[in-house]
Amino acid sequence: MRLLTLHLVFVASLLALPAFSQSRPYIGYAYPAGGCQGATVQVKLGGQGLEGLTGVFITGDGITARVVEFQRALNNQEASLLGEQLRILKKSARETGAADMMSATMMSSGQAESGTGGPSRAGAPKSLIERIEQRTSGYVNQPATAALAHIGYVEVSISPDATPGQRELRLRTVRGISNPLPFYVGQLPENTRPAMRTSPKQILGKEHLALRKRPAEEVECAVEIPRTLNGQIASGEINRYRFKATKGQKLVISAAARQLVPFIADAVPGWFQPVLRLTDTAGKEVAFCDDHQFHPDPVILCEAPYTGEYLLEVYDAIYRGREDFVYRITIGEVPFLTSIFPLGGSADSPVSVKVQGWNIDPKALPLIRQETSGACRVTAANGRLVSNPLPFELTDFPDILEQEGNDTVAKAQRVNLPIVINGHIDKKDDWDVFRISGKSNQVIVAEVRARRFESPLDSIVKVTDASGRLLAHNDDAEDPFAGENTHNADSYVRIKLPADGAYYVHIGDTARNFGPECAYRLHLRRARPDFELRAVPSSLAIRSKGSGQVTVHVERKDGFAGPIKLSLANPPDGFTATPVSISSTSTLARLNVKTTLNATTQQVDLAIVGAATVDGKQITRQAVPAEDRMQAFLWRHLVPATSLATIVFDPSYQLPPKRVAPELPKSEPATPANVSTNAPKFTKSQVAGRLRQLKFLYEEDLLTDEFYLGKVAECASAMQN
Fold first, then answer.
1. Cβ burial, residue 185 (10 Å; 0-12/13-18/19+)
2. Is the pTM of this model over 0.85?
3. Cα 376 to Cα 390: distance, rounded to the nearest angstrom
């Protein structure tokens, strides 16, 4: 008796062990990656480190969200336990009658919702048999990527007047806050395919075993346009949509994929590369696109050639696929901007913008007036529908238009520094030439801003003197803060002039592209030393009364080589940071953020600033939060985010159990019917692991009391033997 009691005390102590520690939460995809105004959407998120999931944050107005459920990845032993429990339940159901069994095993509280691949919208309770079958149906012994194995379900409610466009979605756990992912508020009705289950790892020579077994009724969907289509692409899969259109309709079929998950881990290229193919019902190709200008996300712009049915296909260019190959396709006679001109203007005066695109009312784009310099985004409209946004730059420099005919030195357009010139490369092998006057030893800069503002121009710049001698040239200037951009196509030249006189700045397109969309903004100025900052990562979790660290990267501009002092800007109560400096020879520094708080109930947005002295004046720049992402196993990118989201957590806090396990008997119990009397002996570590598995499964409402107690008794018996 005493020996068994000691074993039961040990078992109880193991059950009280806290869950294992976790790293920073990470989300690799959200599906669907958006919803329509006025809708409530169930979103499935795959990632890792999501244990203790407590909250979801989405930026912007008119949108709320709540966590519905979290599912850990099952291991082999847990899948085996659930299989054993399922066999017992089914045997009992056959013996006692299915109807009675279904009623007896309904959840008494905290019931999960029914549905495909997760909670349902209807909220109908499910039997224990159904819950186990659903939970085990997604079990994969070797998932394609462990980084997507944890699954969270959230419910997002979007108000009818929510501003359309991109937001940021993050998850919060008891010990951290995740990276952000894009989430879109749409204006059209939406069609969402059932969410994918976990993709299995492909084995060389047995790739067919990893292919998705999609039900026949899901291969092709019939939809009415205009509509937004949500889907995921599995390895080797093609999704098809059948729709009707009228002859002459100006169809826009725009895919969002790379912009939903900018960089996919363990993939070359490092993003989902969707292909769109439009055919008639006989299979004859009407339109095809795999890239839109320089963007991997394709856009088909075509007039419907006849009235009738069409078939749209979407697939990966090299037939890859898994859960994070998520897409949103907008299809219909909807507004779409292909280009704007100019790409920017002066901040202190109104700017009139000319637009090109499909289904656009040119009068619907308002004049832009903003008192401060910087980048913003502009859209056009067609009735209530808003187009895709394009970036627009506002500066504090004088702003002029290029004068055509300036394609030689003899016809060069004369300009005075500083100036920003808005122009086009409008014919093949075109060069635009500008004449400036300079002084000996004067340092001047010629900088092109085009690709950064969605222009397909691949610029090249050269500087010559009056005799035609080449003094400097540049094709692609490396930009460490280019974010998602993988081709630094904009040019930059900084040169010290050798003598007083006239100089000529030439700009062309190295790829020989031309047309109204090949616009540029050419900044000509005397060197103005400056810097930009990025703060990595874009979220911070700090222990109670502890500290956390942020890495701040610097990009030096126009030859700036001075030190930069970093600090927190107007920190909220309870947060401090000792200022640190980035030396003139360094490109990064680490800032320690401290807190006197025990915990925060909501995220706090911190701001880091850098101050430096340039030409006797102090300038201050705020660090842009960013995520450090790897592309194609090698190249790293700092992808900007909207905020440095910060929480303070109590490391001793544990979420209350969803279901309290029954107490073990205080005296020697009779051996349960399902406990083997010849159970082998296990180590304390093995027993502890088994008990944790039982505890997790029981709290998920996947085990009956009888089965749970029987397995706990087996553990005690194993220790006793």
1. buried
2. yes
3. 9
